[in-house]
Each structure stands twice: as C-alpha cells, then as structure tokens.
C-alpha cells in the first residue's frame, strides 16, 4: 500500500473511531434535555467540538500528512471542515435555544436573550459570531477582494474561537463528564489537537529558525515586478527541503509578524542556500526588492508533496504558467528527475517569461525539450485543449505531469488531463490553496 493510501486509511479510521465514541458517550449520558430539540442540539454540540479538533489538526500542518497527501489536499479538507464547523456552529445553539424555548413555553428570542446573560453561553455565541465572520470572508466573492495578507490575518481569529470553544465546553459539557474514562478520552483528544498545533506551528518553527539563523544574502530583480531573494543560513541541509516544495516566509522588519506568504523554492536546494522568486502582487511580495542584505528571515517548512518523489514512472511533463514557473524550474534542476523531460511554459509574451534563461540552460544540460507558449488565450490560441495538448505531447498518458500556474490555467490543464485519461496517480498540481 502506498503512503497516500496508508494516510487516507489512517484518517478514515480516526474519523470512524472517534465518531463511534462520540455517539457512545451521547447514549451513555442519557437524555440531556427535556425534548427532541434539546437532544439534537446537544449531539450537534459534540459534532461541533469534534470538528474543531479536526480543524486544529488540519491547520497544524503535520509533516506525515503533508508528505503523504500534500498541503493542497489538506487545505481542501480544511475548507470542507470549515464549512462543517460553520453549519454546526449555527445549528447547535439554534436547537438548544429551541429546546429551552419549548420547555419554558416562551419565545425563541426571549430564551436567547436570557441564555446569553450566562457567561459560558455568551462565550459560545461570541465564538459562533467569529466563525460566521471568517466564513463570510472566505467565500469566493469576498476572498477575491482581500489581499492574501488580510485574508490570513482574519483567519487568526480561529485561534480565538478554539479558546472560547474550550472554555464553553468546560462549563457546559455533560456527555463527556459522565465517567472518568469519557473525560480522559475527550480531553485527551483536545490535548492531542492543541499539542500538535503548538508543536508544529510554534515550537518546531522557532527551534529550526534559531538553529539555522537565516538571512538575506542577495536580492536580484528578474523583471519589472518579479524579484528573487537568496537566503543563507547554518546547516540548511538539515531542513530536508526538496525541489518543488515551498516555505512560509516572514521577514521581520519588512512586514508584521503575523503576515506570512507561501513562496516556492525557485532553485533546487543545495544545503547551503535557498532561493524564492515572487511577483509583486501583494504587500509582502511587492516589497521584497527593498529587503536589505543581511535582513533576518523566518521560514516555516518545507511543505508540499509537489516533488519527484510522487512520480510513478520516469517520463515527465512539467507545465508552468506565469510565476508558477518557480517550482517547475526547481524541479527541472533536481538531479534525480531523469532525462525524458518536456517543459511547457505558458506566458502572454516572451517578456513575461520569468527565469527563461535559466530554464533554457537547464533544459540544454538535461536534454529536455522546452516549449514557450505565448499569446493571449483566444479561439485560435488554446494550447491546453485536449486536442492541442495531445498533438504537442502524443505520449502524455505515459508521463507524470506536474502543473503549477494561475487557477484558470491549472483548472484547464487538469480538466484536459482527465479528458485524455491520464491516470490520476500521474497528475501532480501545486494549487497554493493554503490554510492559514
């Protein structure tokens, strides 16, 4: 069984076992309310608390899950879990209030006003309000209007939600306080989730950055709005970084400590230095060219499974669009990539082809074929339709395909690959839909 299958089996087992235990606790506790509304509300509360522990584990960026499944798929799970938390956070208090309202024979609003005067309930309602705010700003329309930095900052409210949720459970929990065993299980589950969060989001990054002491070694403009930052430090080989992976970068003094950006390595790591290349589209990336040599660097990672370790064969197709060329260029430099390599680089014009000189030199050294696909997409210029891509790469179904670029390009390529029946195990995409 492959590593991804093992990881998925482990995740499935974890969910099934815990949901079974939660239902057992609910049944053992007996009727916790005076009517069906209250019963449903209490059960939804257990679901909500469990979903929050799952969410904490997802944003903890556990290395094992990242390597086996990939940060993009984990972020997809984070998004789905987030919407589950949202609906449970809305439905849980709604049913609880309906239960009390029916029992006391007063209106829903009057019951809600009375309950909200109790501190544990008030904290829970504040947590619900924060969840609604975060989800509202995460829907596609709102997300497009926010910078990555602003979106990431808003999501830090989820840590406040976790704290409020735990306090609310301490005062309001009943189903998991029936026996010592249920208490051990429930708080052990929370301890694992919070422990993983603290370990991999705080302790490990702080320890690594103290050890490696990374600094800016050089800042090299690549074009009008693209810049490369070379980073050096101590014992960088101990990071275990691979071509195609990315780090979360902070530049103390350049931006606020909570502002972080995911940038891929644009050169294969050599154990002595790291290089990122970014286009100035946000506050952080736009100001990278002003970084002084010697400036401190705080990097969290490496993350991502967009590496040649995921290949199922030896023939490879690398597809890049725009600034998505950075991990592709890194992969092309990987000494273990092999020689049967084709690179497709999609840009509007030759002037937009970032790192093209390096790509050509690497392709020449490796014996790879490089195709630069230029021009605006139109009815007569659509290189990634099934017919056009198959004509350009006749043996595409026998190749592992790595694709990174703007969402529209990546989606078009993935749709075409499915149409051409390229096996799923041979398709690898870097989407950068990163959970904060």
Automatic annotation (TrEMBL):
<feature type="transmembrane region" description="Helical">
    <location>
        <begin position="80"/>
        <end position="101"/>
    </location>
</feature>
<dbReference type="Pfam" id="PF01794">
    <property type="entry name" value="Ferric_reduct"/>
</dbReference>
<keyword id="KW-0479">Metal-binding</keyword>
<dbReference type="GO" id="GO:0051537">
    <property type="term" value="F:2 iron, 2 sulfur cluster binding"/>
</dbReference>
<keyword id="KW-0285">Flavoprotein</keyword>
<dbReference type="InterPro" id="IPR017938">
    <property type="entry name" value="Riboflavin_synthase-like_b-brl"/>
</dbReference>
<dbReference type="InterPro" id="IPR013112">
    <property type="entry name" value="FAD-bd_8"/>
</dbReference>
<protein>
    <submittedName>
        <fullName>Putative ferric reductase</fullName>
    </submittedName>
</protein>
<dbReference type="Pfam" id="PF08022">
    <property type="entry name" value="FAD_binding_8"/>
</dbReference>
<keyword id="KW-0408">Iron</keyword>
<feature type="transmembrane region" description="Helical">
    <location>
        <begin position="40"/>
        <end position="60"/>
    </location>
</feature>
<dbReference type="Pfam" id="PF00175">
    <property type="entry name" value="NAD_binding_1"/>
</dbReference>
<dbReference type="GO" id="GO:0016491">
    <property type="term" value="F:oxidoreductase activity"/>
</dbReference>
<keyword id="KW-0411">Iron-sulfur</keyword>
<keyword id="KW-0472">Membrane</keyword>
<dbReference type="InterPro" id="IPR017927">
    <property type="entry name" value="FAD-bd_FR_type"/>
</dbReference>
<dbReference type="InterPro" id="IPR039261">
    <property type="entry name" value="FNR_nucleotide-bd"/>
</dbReference>
<feature type="transmembrane region" description="Helical">
    <location>
        <begin position="121"/>
        <end position="142"/>
    </location>
</feature>
<dbReference type="InterPro" id="IPR001433">
    <property type="entry name" value="OxRdtase_FAD/NAD-bd"/>
</dbReference>
<dbReference type="InterPro" id="IPR013130">
    <property type="entry name" value="Fe3_Rdtase_TM_dom"/>
</dbReference>
<keyword id="KW-0560">Oxidoreductase</keyword>
<feature type="transmembrane region" description="Helical">
    <location>
        <begin position="154"/>
        <end position="171"/>
    </location>
</feature>
<feature type="transmembrane region" description="Helical">
    <location>
        <begin position="183"/>
        <end position="204"/>
    </location>
</feature>
<keyword id="KW-0812">Transmembrane</keyword>
<dbReference type="GO" id="GO:0050660">
    <property type="term" value="F:flavin adenine dinucleotide binding"/>
</dbReference>
<feature type="transmembrane region" description="Helical">
    <location>
        <begin position="7"/>
        <end position="28"/>
    </location>
</feature>
<dbReference type="InterPro" id="IPR050415">
    <property type="entry name" value="MRET"/>
</dbReference>
<keyword id="KW-0274">FAD</keyword>
<keyword id="KW-0001">2Fe-2S</keyword>
<keyword id="KW-1133">Transmembrane helix</keyword>
<dbReference type="GO" id="GO:0016020">
    <property type="term" value="C:membrane"/>
</dbReference>
<feature type="domain" description="FAD-binding FR-type">
    <location>
        <begin position="209"/>
        <end position="309"/>
    </location>
</feature>
<dbReference type="GO" id="GO:0046872">
    <property type="term" value="F:metal ion binding"/>
</dbReference>
